[in-house]
């Protein structure tokens, strides 16, 4: 009996060990996966901020020292690059902000009225017109450059900031109308019915009910268009002269031209200009991020 019991006990112990190891492995695998995910996110964060910090460090050093030792620390920091960049870029920055403000105001004013008509009013061809708006969204913007250029030339808009503003408004309307319409349709119908019973006109319902409720989506539309207009390079190159250049065109002057000595850019001044041009975008995101997140999560949930 003793001889026959030993292999039985020897067989039971490994089985129990395997059963005990399975729950441990099941607990460790999710933790390892989470650790890998966090590791990749931290790596991407470091790489993203590395470029920004490198740009700031280069902007605080003279260009001569940058070519001598590219990776040296900016100590002591030199702010001469920022002084020269700000003096050069402030007129172009103000001009760009003016174009952004007028264009975004026009986009929001027209798109709110159109979106309210699509969402809360009934008229013949409403759905067909809305599908036309969706179809326009599918047209790549680069294809429209030539017809837009011809129209701007025929209307005499070349060489004027209105040549930018008019086409920025027209280009930003389809996406804005689509996004705001989905938001208006997601609002309770009872609110607008109660306003109509109280004698409110469609215009009053729009400006007193719909627009106050739509602040998150309006801020989202404004931020999207601001980033697009602020960083546009191709259309201002075709429309405005050098005396009316926008900020992105003004930054191009820091690139070396053909035939210049050594064709080496002034890296310190160039990076200072880039840092200065980034500040308005950071401010827009800092003050509008709360509404931006609310608008992105609410405007496309229910159509």
Name its key features.
303 residues, mainly alpha, MetI-like fold, 12 helices, 77% helix, disordered C terminus
Task: Explain the overall architecture.
The protein is mainly alpha-helical and 303 residues long. It folds into 2 domains: 2-59; 80-299, MetI-like fold, CATH 1.10.3720. The chain is 77% helix and 0% strand. It has 12 helices and no strands. The protein has helices at 2-59, 63-68, 80-120, 126-137, 145-154, 162-186, 189-197, 202-213, 215-230, 234-239, 247-251, 267-299. Helix 3 (80-120) packs parallel to helix 12 (267-299) and helix 6 (162-186) packs antiparallel against helix 9 (215-230). The longest helix is centred in the first third of the chain and has 58 residues, at 2-59. It starts with a helix and ends with a helix. Residues 299-303 have low confidence and may be disordered.
Entry summary:
The chain is mostly helical and 303 residues long. It folds into 2 domains: 2-59; 80-299, Orthogonal Bundle (MetI-like fold), CATH 1.10.3720.
Helicity, as a percent range: over 70%
Shape: globular
Count of runs of 4 or more consecutive helical residues: 12
Order of helices and strands: HHHHHHHHHHHH
CATH level-3 fold name of the largest domain:
MetI-like fold
**What is the number of independent domains?**
2
CATH architecture of the largest domain: Orthogonal Bundle
Radius of gyration: 29 Å
* Major sheet: none
Helix vs. strand class: mainly alpha
CATH superfamily of the largest domain, by name, is MetI-like
Runs in which pLDDT lies below 50 for 5 or more consecutive residues are 299-303
- Fraction of residues in β-strands: under 5%
CATH class of the largest domain: Mainly Alpha
């Amino acid at each position: 009996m003793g001889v026959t019991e030993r292999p039985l006990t020897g067989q039971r112990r490994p089985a129990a060990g395997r059963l005990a190891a399975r729950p441990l492995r099941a607990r460790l695998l999710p933790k390892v996966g989470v650790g890998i995910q966090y590791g990749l996110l931290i790596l991407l964060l470091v790489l993203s901020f590395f470029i920004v910090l490198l740009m700031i460090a280069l902007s605080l050093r003279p260009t001569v020292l940058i070519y001598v030792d590219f990776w040296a620390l900016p100590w002591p920091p030199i702010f001469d690059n920022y002084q020269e960049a700000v003096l050069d870029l402030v007129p172009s920055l103000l001009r760009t902000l003016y174009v952004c403000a007028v264009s975004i105001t026009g986009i929001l004013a027209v798109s709110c009225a159109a979106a309210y008509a699509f969402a809360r009013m009934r008229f013949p061809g409403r759905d067909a017109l809305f599908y036309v708006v969706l179809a326009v969204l599918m047209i790549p913007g680069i294809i429209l450059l030539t017809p837009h250029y011809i129209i701007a030339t025929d209307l005499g808009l070349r060489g004027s900031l209105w040549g930018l503003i008019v086409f920025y408004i027209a280009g930003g309307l389809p996406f804005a109308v689509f996004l705001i319409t989905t938001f208006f349709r997601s609002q309770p119908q009872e609110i607008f019915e109660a306003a109509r019973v109280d004698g409110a006109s469609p215009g009053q319902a729009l400006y007193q009910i719909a627009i106050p409720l739509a602040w998150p989506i309006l801020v989202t539309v404004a931020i999207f268009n601001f980033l697009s207009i602020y960083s546009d390079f191709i259309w201002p190159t075709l429309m405005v002269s050098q005396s009316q250049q926008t900020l992105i065109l003004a930054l191009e002057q820091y690139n070396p031209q053909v035939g210049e000595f050594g064709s080496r850019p002034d890296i310190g001044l160039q990076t200072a200009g880039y840092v200065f041009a980034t500040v308005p975008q950071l401010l827009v995101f800092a003050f509008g991020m709360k509404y931006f997140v609310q608008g992105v999560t609410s405007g496309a949930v229910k159509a």
